[in-house]
Specification:
The chain is of the alpha+beta class. The protein has a single domain, classed as Aminopeptidase, CATH 3.40.630. 24% of the residues lie in helices and 37% in strands. The protein has three helices and seven strands; from the N terminus they run E-H-E-E-E-H-E-H-E-E. It has a seven-stranded mixed sheet. It is globular, with a radius of gyration of 16 Å.
């Protein structure tokens, strides 16, 4: 009897990503954002390799099933490119990624641009709308902010 496959949580800087993993991450982002959501945009935006950028993902048998990145931006952290493969949705991977991202971010403030229908999801992790709804690549988004948390004494 074979053990059930499980999703392994991974985190790396750009420098620590091997080319096979980087390819799998970019492929997932392209499959969902460009093909499924029909948005022609520059996913490879020159920020993946910035110093301080962290890549966080779930992998199973070499397949990247969910992903996000954390950027340093103007004194805060920016969570972005949150994506889950179509066949991995509903398993809680995105929530587990956000939880891991908040561990990495620590007590620093953070922002994200949420697709409007996902604002309640991000609110569960302490993010609050911080601006009006706007269109990005034809999809309604909302800027969200999570204040710095106080360090435990």
């Amino acid at each position: 009897m074979h053990p059930e496959p499980h999703d392994e949580l991974r985190s790396a800087t750009f420098r620590d990503l091997d080319t096979t993993t980087l390819y799998a991450i970019l492929r997932l982002r392209s499959e969902v954002f460009v093909v499924e959501q029909e948005c022609a945009y520059a996913d490879i935006d020159g920020r993946d390799d910035e110093p301080g950028t962290r890549h966080v993902w779930f992998e199973r048998d070499g397949e990247v099933r969910a992903y996000l990145r954390i950027l340093r931006e103007d004194g805060h952290e920016r969570v972005g490119r949150v994506v889950t493969a179509k066949d991995a949705r509903g398993a809680g991977l995105a929530g587990r990624l956000i939880t891991e991202a908040l561990e990495i971010i620590g007590n620093r403030p953070s922002t994200l641009d949420a697709q409007a229908h996902l604002t309640a999801f991000y609110a569960r992790y302490g993010y609050q709308p911080s601006g009006p709804e706007f269109l990005e690549d034809g999809i309604p988004h909302v800027k969200m902010f999570r204040a710095a948390t106080r360090p435990a004494h």
